[in-house]
Amino acid sequence: MNYYKGAIPGSDNFIYFKSEVKLYENDVIVLEEKKYFIERIESGLLILQKVGAIVSVSV
């Protein structure tokens, strides 16, 4: 299990969550029906951007 701490620029609140897979920059995560794009990772802190809708995903 991987534990993460994320932040949205301009917000003082942090988002704490866990994931069974390791997360990287440019990944999209879904937390409680809200979608976030991992813009970058700074010293273990995920800098997130809110995403309105995801049209398609490919692997």
How is this structure best described in words?
The protein is mainly β and 59 residues long. The protein has one domain. It has strands spanning 2-7, 14-19, 28-31, 34-42, 45-51. It has a five-stranded mixed beta sheet with strand order 2-1-5-4-3, with no helix packed on it. The radius of gyration is 11 Å and the shape is globular.
At a glance:
The chain is an all-beta fold. The chain has no helices and 5 strands.
Give the C-alpha Rg. Answer: 11 Å
Number of domains: 1
Most strands sheet? 5 strands, mixed
N-to-C series of helices and strands: EEEEE
Distance between the termini: 22 Å
How are the strands ordered across the major sheet? 2-1-5-4-3
Average pLDDT rating: 89
Which of globular, elongated, flat, extended, rod-shaped describes the shape?
globular
What is the oligomer described by this structure? Answer: single chain
Structure class: mainly beta
- Helix content estimate: under 10%
Number of helices: 0
Count the E strands.
5
Question: What attributes characterize this protein structure?
Answer:
globular, about 60 residues, 5 strands, mainly beta, five-stranded mixed β-sheet
Q: What's the SSE blueprint?
A:
Blueprint (H helix, E strand, L loop, with lengths): L1 E6 L6 E6 L8 E4 L2 E9 L2 E7 L8
Parallel strand pairs: 1-5
Antiparallel strand pairs: 1-2, 3-4, 4-5
